[in-house]
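Internal tracking record. Fields below are filled automatically when a chain is submitted to the structure queue. Please do not edit lines marked as system-generated. If the sequence contains nonstandard residues, flag them in the REMARKS field before resubmitting.
Queue: standard
Priority: normal
Entity type: single polypeptide chain
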Amino acid sequence: MENQALAALNAAIVACEKCPRLRAYCEAVAHEKRRAFREQVYWGKPLPGFGDAAAHVLIVGLAPAAHGGNRTGRMFTGDRSGDFLYAALHRAGFANQPIAISRNDGLQLIDAYIAASGRCAPPDNKPTLEELNNCRPYLTEELRLLKNVCVIVALGKIAFDNVLAALADRGVVIPRPRPAFGHEAVDQIDRYTLIASYHPSQRNTQTGLLTPLMFDRVFKRARQSIAQTRAST
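SYSTEM-GENERATED OUTPUT FOLLOWS
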């Protein structure tokens, strides 16, 4: 039933037209293309979630890249952020391979599901607050449908803030003082362990703000939290 409900939710996401600015931008990028991908057919639509419907960990990013997810049609696929993320997920045992280049590359997530704060690529990677609010019900519904999720990894402050808002929308009481974003910050919120991480953007990874070792610690902590939850149930 969860698989069917997630499939219906993902179909609704792909058909979403809530944000005219984002839809116009994604379609324009898909038409104009980048020279390196001029022979490819761009996805150009909102991106659905991706992964294991029985997942214990939910990973939440910012939004698709214009020539990454907006081109390939899958979260964190076809760009440098995805290269960094999926390599880490593979090392942690959450993915069957370390690369993600297309929807047909054989990648499978293991006990993990990937969502985003925004489902359309925004100009300059900056969605507006209104656009994020328009998109948040999808994340809220994913939290409802992903019954086994006990760990949420938020990639970046925008994702962190949107996770807190989505949990509140689900009726979860957010602790006071409000959890603060910081790399490797861990907060227990109701049944969820929320782990914050810097986003694996090129700006962060190329400057050394986020290193592979730092990212590995995030997913090691996710593994530990899953094991603790299983041991207590």
